[in-house]
Amino acid sequence: MTPPTGQHGFLAELRAQLHHYGRLMRVDRPIGIWLLLWPTLWALWLSADGTPDPWIFTVFVLGALVMRSAGCVINDLADRNLDGRVARTRDRPLVTGDVAPAEALALFVALSMIAIGLVLTLDRLTQMLAVGAAALTVLYPFCKRFLAAPQLVLGIAFAWAVPMAFAAHTGYIPRLAWLLALAVVVWAIAYDTMYAMADRQDDLKAGIRSTAILFGQADVFVIAVLQLVFLFALLLVGEVARLGMWYRLSLLISALFMLYQFTLIRTRKPDACFRAFRNNRHIGATVFAGIILSYTFDPLSA
After folding, report:
1. Is 260 helix (H, G, I), strand (E, B) or coil?
2. CATH of the domain at 269
3. Would residue 160 count as lying in a domain?
4. What phi-psi label fits residue 122: left (phi over 0), alpha (psi between -120 and 50 degrees) or beta?
5. CB-CB neighbours of 71 under 10 Å
6. Could you list the pLDDT tens digit for every one of the 302 residues in the chain?
7. Domain count of the chain?
8. Which domain holds residue 108?
9. Is residue 5 in some structural domain?
10. Lower Cβ count inside 10 Å, N or C end of the chain?
11. Is residue 16 part of a domain?
């Protein structure tokens, strides 16, 4: 039977509102999930010598999904009066009025409660580190107003899962974890500068700060240097973790992806810079494949 008009209208409105919430969480744009998830997976495999605990793996993967969504919500809530001035963000739900600020705040709290529930199943050290992750998630959106390099805070936030993964598996944080975290921070600054290059002109008008503005005409050169530092740090990670040929091959392929990104960002065209930013998900996947293959086929990694 066809449901009554009133019920049909309610269901249609509910679906529409859930769609708006999904857009607010960037469910339709998973690039941020991948950029957060890949370093998390690197750390899970390295901290467990190639065999991560199934429950810790589940908690961290779900946590990455939830915290990325929560980060997007609080970011849009903080920027709701600025996003309308930037062409790429002026159709976000809080700008268009499809989601009210109170709804966004309630959604952020709900996602945060889920994250808290997940981390409470882990050890005390990991729980303490999770407090830092939550603080970084809330802090980052406001850094764009007073910090010349807010991408540094974003990088630390995206790298924070690395020491957490080592703490969850080993009960402490070795130097390898901090080395890997440093690599992730440098990588995040590089790719988020590409992202900011796409919005540079609008950000200047809106008063939003970014490394793209800070670096100015040296932006392409600085990104290239950051990528070299990132590769060198990953090479050191491989040496410390005794990863073999497959891992080194993954770094070579990653370098080729970076060369492709260079050909895009040197034009400084917004669309090309955004494509270069999105291409970084392939680097994350390639490095992860190198880690898995090394543990599987390189005897020294076992």
Report:
1. helix
2. 1.10.357.140
3. yes
4. beta
5. 25
6. 445 556 667 777 878 888 888 888 988 888 999 999 999 999 999 999 999 999 999 999 999 999 999 999 998 888 888 777 777 778 888 888 888 899 999 999 999 999 999 999 999 999 999 999 999 999 998 888 889 999 999 999 999 999 999 999 999 999 999 999 999 999 999 999 999 999 898 888 888 899 999 999 999 999 999 999 999 999 999 999 999 999 999 999 999 999 999 999 999 999 999 999 999 999 999 999 999 999 999 766 55
7. 1
8. 21-301
9. no
10. N
11. no
Structure tokens at 27: 């469910």
Beta carbons within 8 Å of 103's beta carbon, 6+ residues apart: 21
Using alpha carbons, select from 163, 161, 154 the residue that is nearest to residue 187: 154
Distance from C-alpha of 158 to C-alpha of 166, rounded to nearest angstrom: 15
Structure tokens of 100?
Answer: 């009210």
**Cβ–Cβ < 8 Å for 209, 145:** yes
Within a domain: 3:
no
Amino acid sitting at position 242: R
The Cα 274–Cα 36 span in angstroms is 17
Backbone angles phi, psi at 80, to 5 degrees: -60, -25
Q: Which pairs with CB-CB distance under 8 Å and at least 24 residues apart come from 176-183? A: 176/46, 176/237, 176/240, 176/241, 177/43, 177/47, 179/233, 179/236, 179/237, 179/240, 180/39, 180/42, 180/43, 180/46, 180/233, 180/237, 182/233, 183/230, 183/233, 183/234, 183/237
| Structure token digits, residue 84 | 């309308």
Query: Taking the model in full, what pTM does it have?
Result: 0.91
